[in-house]
Design the sequence.
């Protein structure tokens, strides 16, 4: 007896998103062709499971309902298969097995397999990095560690539409006599506002040194996965990173095998972990296959205002004047910022805050006064006067939008480098 012929097996094999979906299996062939259908879920996180044609769900125990026996009544057979939602990413294998006694495929075989990939969701995490790996003391400069909550966006690599992720973070200086000396933006802008460059964003990778080096620019690593030319060496788990002659951080200039070449000689022991940073969208994209942009990111410092708690006289002669205030937190010393207000002379270098005697509710500011020769007269700054501190902040707000054009194949952390954005205030020169 001649065997019946199955001519074709078809099903949409394009990638599925993580959402539930239905796809139809089509088998075309001669009437009375006989075959069995099995659908196997090849789980990424556990052992494989099998489609139950009665319940239309997957089970790990293989029973009779996981096989569907078919004898074609016509020239074609259609079977809808339900695929569940799954955020981890899976592969489904659809097997059509001809009954060898009666049926074969047109190519002479007895089994046809069709695979469908369900693309999992990945998470892009947007975070603040206060630089604790560089200086453990940095985290103490803020009221929280990290300074504000991460923002996460979940999506699939098969997603075609761009996703806008709004960011609204607040950095708050620690309220303490030890660390409460303010936060400053680059160059302390008069507007209290700073446009954040894309290059302040980074993602971090770590690799382990394979063999110690001494004053060398070549380093052998256990692996160079996710390392690219242009990435920065930011820290090590033991020892320190040597900067260049002008204070620049070393960068990767070449990669060959598991050996990297860097721009500044280093001495690093065997087994030490090196922290590499990819700054800016271009390098970040190379690491994760992620396509995104950072749009309209602004850091804006909240105007810092203190209140004078005792009458203070500004004399006509040079010197430092102590202004007693109702709390000093957020104010920096070291002649970096000025105090302005009623009866405070603003000529020349007057009113630079030299040092701070810290207190939550009292304390004082030592202000530099150069009255001699300015033609000024003695002035009293009375109790209750508002002092405006320009350039030093207790609070800085960060706002902007991250646009994700393509989600990565693995979870990705993108961080804003606060060591580039924020200078921490000090008590005195």
Sequence:
């Amino acid at each position: 007896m001649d065997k019946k012929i199955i001519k074709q097996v078809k099903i949409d094999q394009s990638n599925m998103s993580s959402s539930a979906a239905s796809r139809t299996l089509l088998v075309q062939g001669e009437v009375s062709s006989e075959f069995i259908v099995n659908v196997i879920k090849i789980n990424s996180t556990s052992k494989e499971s099998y489609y139950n044609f009665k319940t239309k769900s997957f089970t790990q125990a293989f029973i009779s309902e996981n096989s569907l026996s078919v004898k074609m009544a016509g020239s074609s057979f259609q079977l809808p298969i339900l695929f569940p939602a799954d955020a981890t990413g899976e592969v489904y294998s659809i097997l059509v097995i001809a009954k060898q006694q009666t049926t074969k495929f047109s190519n002479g075989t007895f089994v046809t397999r069709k695979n469908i990939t369900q693309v999992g969701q990945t998470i892009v995490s947007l975070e603040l990095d206060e630089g604790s790996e560089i200086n453990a003391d940095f985290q103490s400069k803020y009221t929280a560690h990290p300074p504000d909550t991460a923002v996460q966006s979940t999506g699939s690599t098969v997603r075609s539409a761009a996703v806008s992720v709004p960011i609204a973070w607040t950095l708050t200086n620690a309220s303490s006599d030890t660390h409460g000396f303010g936060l400053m933006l680059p160059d302390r802008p008069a507007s209290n506002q700073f446009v954040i460059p894309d290059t302040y964003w980074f993602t971090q990778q770590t690799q382990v040194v394979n063999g110690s080096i001494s004053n060398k620019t070549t380093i052998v690593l256990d692996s160079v996965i996710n390392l690219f030319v242009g990435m920065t060496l930011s820290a090590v788990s033991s020892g320190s990173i040597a900067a260049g002659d002008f204070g620049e951080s070393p960068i990767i200039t070449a990669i060959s095998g598991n050996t990297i070449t860097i721009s500044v000689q280093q001495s690093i022991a065997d087994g030490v972990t090196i922290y590499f940073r990819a700054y800016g969208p271009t390098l970040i994209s190379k690491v994760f296959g992620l396509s995104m942009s950072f749009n309209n990111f602004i850091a804006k410092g909240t105007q810092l205002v203190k209140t004078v708690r005792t009458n203070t006289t500004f004399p006509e002669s040079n010197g430092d004047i102590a202004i007693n205030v109702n709390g000093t937190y957020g104010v920096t010393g070291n002649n970096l910022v000025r105090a302005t207000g009623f009866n405070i002379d603003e000529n020349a270098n007057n009113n630079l805050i030299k040092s701070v005697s810290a207190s939550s509710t009292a304390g004082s500011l030592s202000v530099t006064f150069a009255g001699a020769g300015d033609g000024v007269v003695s002035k009293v700054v009375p109790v209750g006067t508002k002092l405006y501190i320009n350039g030093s902040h207790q609070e800085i707000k960060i706002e902007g939008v991250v646009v994700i054009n393509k989600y990565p194949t693995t979870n990705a952390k993108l961080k804003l480098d606060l060591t580039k954005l924020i200078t921490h205030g000090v008590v005195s020169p």
Remarks:
- The mean pLDDT is 93.
- The helical segments are 280-288, 418-421.
- The first strand starts at residue 4 and ends at 10.
